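User: Hello, can you help with two protein structures?

Assistant: Certainly.
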Amino acid sequence: MHDGNLKTVVWLAQRLVTACMALAAAAVLAQAAPKIANSAPADMLLPEAQVELHPWQAALPRLTAEAYFTNLHQGDKIETPFLVKFGLSGGWGLAPIAKPISGKSGHHHLLVNRDLPLDFKQALPFTDQYIHFGKGQMETVLNLAPGQYQLRLLLADDKHLPYFVYSKPMTITVTKKNTTDPKSLVVPGLSLAVEGRSVKRPFRVQFHVSGLNVAHQTQKEKDTGHFRLTVSSGTASKSAVMDFVNGQTEVWLEPPLGEYTLKLDFLDNANPGKMLAVGVTQSVSVE
């Protein structure tokens, strides 16, 4: 066989292998993709709000969505009671179970010394090892006795049917249980987190609210709210205002290089325009 023909055959074989690998990867992603369809009948679901993204919002850098702990890490040693906080990525939002809603929405579940369920078509049980947060909570107080524990977060719909949105298993050790009143650890208020004073694009901004619950604006659920992020710069003609009306608790940003002030607010879903908490600000340099 001539060298030219041989090179052509090799090139075609390489293209074929690449195509097969791409198809296989697509099949795996399709099988593991988050279950977006809600279990309630379609005519009973509230619609998810259609929101146009601001030009400074970056595309999501991760292929899969994840529920995660924001202030607890693998191997941590803690004393209880301990206020543990939750995060949620991939464009998913929190939604209380009282009013089912369509789209990428759910509520957190804390699994204690439990693996992921074998059957994701079965509702999660109500036990001390499957702790439900159906009001749209972003945190809970751990009151575990001393010992070693495996913790995991899992998102589920209004019928408690799990999505393929969860955290990696995390092992922690409780070294001491104190007599502190768990309620004293929950101080109503807002916080936002950015990885460093100076960041490179794109960068993530995480939102948190304590003592209050998160929901979709269209649910109009009493005592719930949604986040609003305002990004201001001395060089921009006006601030960028982003309303996360679908219960999201983080965003990835990619603004022009420069100095910015981030302001986080929490708006009442039942009373438009009303703030449920005092806003917080943070400065960041985008390099």
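That covers the first. Now for the second protein you mentioned:
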Amino acid sequence: MPPPPPPPPPPGAGYIPPPPGGFAGGSAGYAARRTDGLAVASLIIGIFSLLCTVACLGIVLGPTAAIMGFISRQRITSSGGALGGGTMATVGLVLGIVGFVASVGWFFIAISGAITSGSTTTHSP
């Protein structure tokens, strides 16, 4: 004798209501990583140090960007993944160093140009 058929499902049993709050998507329960503000500031100041090379502002802005980038990288590393922006911090650090070196080089080029243009007077008899 075959087993009896299972009982019919109650009405509306095939419908499962969505959870409260709507569809959560693939990131349910995880907060987005915050970008460290010091990394953003380091990147911006590093760009300005490179752009302001001709005015020799990179001598001040370059080390500022490099120090901020270095501190930001340490904060991101020690946050255990809660903070992001490591690439921005590294780029800001590198741009700060490049801006400083370019400003110092431009300063010496400008000084040597001023010295040589003042001393190249020719005397005619």
